[in-house]
Amino acid sequence: MKKSHWATLLVFFVLIPLTLYLGTRLSGRSYYITGTLIILELMVPFFMAFEGRKPQARELVVVAVLSAIAIAGRVAIPIPHFKAAFAIIMLAGIAFGPETGFIVGAITAFASNFFYGQGAFTPWQMMGYGAGGMLAGFLFRRGWLPRNRWVMAAFGFAAVIVWVGPLLDCSHIFLTLGSTDWVGALGYLISGFWVNLVQGVCTMLVMLLFGIPLLEKLDRIKMKYGMMEDENGL
Amino acid sequence: MTNDPFSKCHPTVNFLYFLGVIGCGVLIQHPAYLAAGVLCGGLYYLLLNGRGGWRRILGLLPLFVLLAAINPLFNTQGQRILFRIFGRPYTLEALLYGGAIGAMFVSMMLWFGCYDRVLTGDKFTSLFGNLIPAISLLLVMVFRLVPHFIRKTRQIVGARRSIGKGVGEAASGADKLKHGLVVLGALTSWALEGSVVTGDSMRARGYGSARRSSFMIYRMTWADYALLAAMMGLLGLVIGFAAGGSAAAQFTPSLKIAPVSGFRALGLGAYWAYLLIPTVLYVKEAIQWHISRLKI
Question: A20, A121, A187, B190: which has the highest count of C-beta atoms within 10 A?
Fold first, then answer.
């Protein structure tokens, strides 16, 4: 078995139960600490798998370029609060597969916070973006969803509304809400809904107008230089 | 760059310090500890950012008030009812709890602000370069590419404007979006072509042929070890006292806050000392500098 497989087993059967057990014994804001630790632990196997397969130079550079475009993209579009980052991450997942999608997402979230400020939400954002890119890779690469601009737009919108947005809201809820009171949590989710809606619409528009052109560019690069095709799924 | 002596310490020291600050800051909700977190965080933030730091600190004030005022709306537990809103009781205990949450949030914002200034990207990657070589390299490349792409984006926008295809401030949202996506597309094509060249050049120069060695620009000096030992000692004291119940605080349904007196004040003192480490180093260096200037 590979190292990363051992790590996965270790995380799921030892570390996460242990964290949950210790988390219930802590007083104070233990929900936030427990949640953040579990998220970090969940990301470890992914990063170990990436390190373990010794990515080639071309793959590394393409991942770095996609992340940097997702971060720098907000300069290109002269509309305030318009973020194309998550759409670009999902398109990277669709073009290069789930593993690359996860790495591009997690790295984008982490690196962009070096420019715009780290916060207590950083690990949650890494998980949200990474898992979003991975899911897009799974669904579109395996052919479960067609590469149609409307389908991609709908998927992008849904991914923000039901996954990335609520996950970020959860980090705020756990950090700022004293008790796990359902009414309070619901209030936060509703107040965060409008921000998520704006994000979702941005993602949808980018997927709709830019999705197919970007995928064509990525596919063309892959074909032109014969990249990332020797590995299964990649 | 600032003249902050703590920023010049070994990244390991910086990283572990902030880990301790943020861990304690999120877990301990005793008012005296929270006040220490906010005051020390604010002080260090001001030292790092100069006069410009006041703006962010003043900007955090409404956030604190908002978080404090909102909590009783959700959390209706408590004994002393101030008034009723939408038929739900608005209690003093919940308001105080909201204040504690607000203070915790503000102190986190301040300390993360300090973290951003101290533990810059180069320090992070040099710290984890051996543990996660591929991901550290990725981060380094992203840090370099982002400013590079922003410059290129401006060039593309300028070139389009000079052939009459720019959009002004007054253009509609749809036009701006279309224009932006065209620019983004041009940037992507150009960047991907460049990435292949970079990748091949890396390969030609031997990337991946052997284990990557890493050059460590920072060295642990005896001062770093001494600081690390002092940090661990103080943090151990804080955790020990907190585990013993000295930092316990419960707000709802009834107010139960551990008194800070006598022997228990030692825990709070250790927490203050821990949080003041960077400030003390800063002041010490400023005084030394002043004295040596007087000697000239």
Answer: A121
